[in-house]
Structure prediction request, 1003 residues.
Amino acid sequence: METTLANNAPLPKLSSIGTVAMGASKLTRFDNITKSQQDSRNYRGLQLENGLKVLLISDPSTDKSAAALSVEVGHLSDPDEIPGLAHFCEHMLFLGTKKYLNENDYMSFLSENGGSSNAATYADTTKYYFDVVPDKLPEALDRFSQFFIAPLFTESATEREINAVHSEHEKNLSTDVWRIRQVNKSLCDPKHPYNKFGTGSKKTLLEDPKLNNINIREELMKFHAKWYSANIMSLAVFGKESLDELEGMVVGMFSEIENKNVTSPQWKDLPFREDQLATRAMIVPVKDSRSLTITFQTEDLERHYRAGPEHYVSHLIGHEGVGSILSELKAKGWCNNLVGGYSTVGRGFGFFEVMVDLTQDGFEHVDDIVKIIFQYINMLKKEGPKRWIFEEYCDLCEMQFRFKDKENPLSLVSSVVHSMQSYPLKEVLAAPYLISEWRPDLIEDLWNKFYPKNARITVVGQKCEAKTNCEEEWYGTKYCTEKIDASVLEEWARNDVNSNLHLPERNPFIPTNFDLMPVDADIQSTPVIIHNTPMMRVWFKQDVEFLKPKTLMSLDFCSPIVYSDPLNCNLTHMFVQLFKDHLNEYLYAADLAGLRLIVANTTYGVSVSIGGYSHKQHILLEKVLEDMYNFKIDEKRFDILKEQYIRNLKNYQADQPYQHAVYYLALLLTEQAWSKQELIDASELLTVDRLRCFIDELLSRMHVECFIYGNVNKEKALEISGKVEDKLKNTDASVLPLLARQLMLKREYKLNNDENTLFEINNEFHKSSCAELYLQCGMQSDQSNVYVDLVTQILSEPCYNQLRTKEQLGYIVFCGSRKSNGVQGIRVIVQSANHPAFVEERIEHFLNGMVDYLEKMTDEEFKRHKEALAAMKLEKPKRLSTQFSRFWNEISLQQYHFNRAQVEVAFLQTLTKQQIVDYYKEYIVMGASQRRSLSIHVLSTAEGGAGHKEAPTDVAKQSSDDASAQKDFVKVSDLAGFKSTRALYPMVQPYIDIKPKGSKCKL
Prediction:
């Protein structure tokens, strides 16, 4: 990831407390942090004597604590001769410090205590963050602080971790977003840091340094010593402790970070010289994608955050309503989506970009599309900045801040450390929302840069290949560049009028009533059924916890025909896409006003979800239902969206190998699932007439299950659901409702005991291969869920440490549970340059070795794992939408186990270590009596891949010396053959006595 916020805004001069002495050190406090009026958390800003900026967040009710630290240096500051050094430094900080010598001490501590951790290197910033159970914050914070005080950078870890960075780079080699970005970076001034390659690889971190007699470990230590200075760092700490207690922790642990009095690097010069503007780059993607991007470089706009000129301009250019650029381009059949906006790339400069995807016809009209975009920009200049548009936008932002959902601790600290670099401490929570200064001059200054002569045009498409004559150094991307003809620039710059382009109307969806509904006398703690007929079932729960003027509802329109064969699956998809496309202009204003609609096709039907402010939801629902039941196909849009759909199906081939492994596992085990190729084959029969007939048949007989939750009482919920039922009463479902057994859930195939099943598939797009080992552990229940979850809780960190950190098999290493269709199991996924057969042997070797690890685990360690798992299961939802999803998931699964976490944790507390050892020996180790395994091997046949005919012998034919990790496989060569010889698990029965939805089956 390379886009980032910046900046080094000065701290406010005044504090409500001021400067105080603490022992030998001094610090400045800021107790006047502006927060949302519904925010019950306590905040305090600090500046330590060493210059470190700190935000403390106290929440006594929290079930997770968290911390994040950002340092204002990133890959733009890499030495010219060592690309990727900043990113490599980020990796190395995790691998041992002088106080905590063990390489995986930090990660294992977090894992044992319900925590997680990550980091990211951006262009001008590097960020580190973690969360942990609240009682363990002091110990976790102490380990964390040592990254920035005394990292080891050991020789052994240095050599090994280069492989991890290289593996991360190889993961990105065939990913278009990385490839396209690097082409554009390579086309700027070679002397500008934006030109650099930020990720790093073996070549830049090992091979080239050796050739140039550069000691990479010494360079790492120099980089850390130079840039990791307290005065350019921001720290956010979230805990259950009081502000004074958190302050004591931070002062005690982080005052040791040295202040080297460095200045945050800034880049005032823009990356592209004048002779590099008014150019067109044509880039060949890996996937069959088409897009056009217009880029304008600008100075850093962060200092104008109170006026937000870039927000005003992007609000209009990115608008999707009537009169917008997107509306005009869609009417011509040239594009489907548009994104417009500004991003700061590094302190000192940024880009304003307008990006559209291109239809087949749009690809032939690139210059015409650019012309329309400049016509819109010229219209904006002619109209001038409008105060009412600015004020409406500000009102929407203020409303969003006022009713802001409670953020997850990790998300909050991770985002706020960015804000601390950009805004005064007092404003770090509010500044991204509360734009207040009307500065039309700044708006005009910005769009006055938007002239054709200042633009760079990037066209992406496989048709570009015929014109390409260059290859980018790091990713091998083919491209070409050319100056745009003066006559074309003149045509784009002409100030002619397009009457279809105009400013948006005032937004009719902005809510004005934020009252909460009276609470029902008989309120329940979990969802209840308030209406149940053969056609429709309505679940309802009034919120009394989050107290927001918001309501969430999901409606599942179910029909057995939607997934009965690949053609019907395609027809359902096309209906949903065309319906969403039809509603887009109408919905955009609602979306801006915090009222969101999601329509999606599922394996059971069509899902419609509406969420946001309660006040005007009924208007949106009525519009959606009316248009759904009176839908007319736009034949021009049908052809465009059909082509896009087929292209996306084919593009799946280029997804990451680990994504393929996950996909094929589900395809093999799910009762009814259609492959991408089966869907592609069936697309031959997609026609307007066939879709028209299908929609009529689909809408004629459906069952709807509905859940309404939030600022709504029973009476209002029945009123809302009544609007849906009114539509159903006019269909055949009122005469012949769907039977309950037509609405049954898909089931899972059962693997055979003591059988090692293997499915192999090739991937020609990526150099990496992937091995996934899945151990099926039976049906879900309170007890079995806990066994699986506790085993994966214990395995997860040692698996990562062994296979990724020590053995360096690959960048992506995952160990976790899979729960699907009422069945569960444990899976290990490793994406690697090595052959999947070798990787699987290493996975098995690890799993076998964990028996000894489990048996030697102390009671205290085992207790910590149990407590960590209990904390994760009992973690309370922070926002309305999270609680809604938990309830809706139980309803969708038809298990209705609304107190699942409490029941599972009660069982967890009774488990002994010996029970887990016995379970592990029964289900996990090779030769176990209940072991059922399915392996997926995705083998790379790309050049340099383990399955390529010219792959190095040590990669393609690796084998393990460990005979106990080798096994005989039953290979899957035919999907139907595999499924016809396996039994299906029964469905998990409901936890409360509720009859199946739909009409009662008659004997």
Summary: The longest strand covers residues 769-779. The chain is about 40% helix and 20% strand. Residues 1-17 have pLDDT under 50 and may be disordered.
